[in-house]
Amino acid sequence: MEELMIILKYAFLGALQGFTEPIPISSSGHLVLAQEYFGLSVSENDFSFEVLMNFASLLAVLLIYRNDLTRLTENGLKYMTKRDSAYKTDFMFIVYLIVGTIPAGVIGLLLEDQISASFRGIAPIGGALIVTGLALWLIRNLKGRKSDRNLTLKDALIVGFAQAVALIPGISRSGATIVAAMGIGMKRETALRFSFLLYIPVSLGTIVLKINDMNVGDMLIPYLIAFIFSFVLSYFSLKWFMGLMERGNLKYFAYYCFVVGSFILITT
Questions:
Q1: Where are the domains of the chain?
Q2: Mean pLDDT within 19-35
Q3: Transmembrane stretches, by residue range (predicted)?
Q4: What mean pLDDT is predicted for residues 154-171?
């Protein structure tokens, strides 16, 4: 019975992380909430679980954006070899993704531990969710005019710094980047694609930095089940979110963040 309960716990945590990772409500914040209100948690320093869940969500993003990644790679190489202006937009999009990765990469390496320590506890997560809700509310009706060919280095840096802000527990990475992207005039489709393609190098970096700390041990089965749940839920959650973005329904996530954030602050 104890083994079954462990498996069910990790299945739930994998599903929770997978479902909340793509949408703008903070997956890390919700894992803390699961620990605080339901007593569901992994070891504080369990890097194995963190890396595996991160990898599961990354695979889902790679699967959904595989055509974009293939096109960008092929056209980027063609531009580098042929200097044909027809491929410049995709080449520059890659450059902007690289530039956008730098702020979170540098700040994460230098300050991640200090940031986590400064915002430790559940109350800061409640405040961060309310901030996320306000940001989503402010850009809920924006449609934007900038497509891939209209982006600039400045745009990439702004979105990149927004991604760095998401190092604060409770601030959604997808929420921060999409709010920044739409706030500077990107179309919804462009903002969404840039946000999740920007997730790929950051996620890979996290996996590379922490993979040496992995130690599955006798938790292979629970971790494998959590991985599967996280991958499946990440895939369908991102697909669902793409549909909501297309219809301009970000306000519902704002409402959710307001309600959950307020509940946390009232009960702590």
A1: 2-267
A2: 92
A3: 47-65, 86-111, 117-139, 191-209, 221-238, 250-267
A4: 95
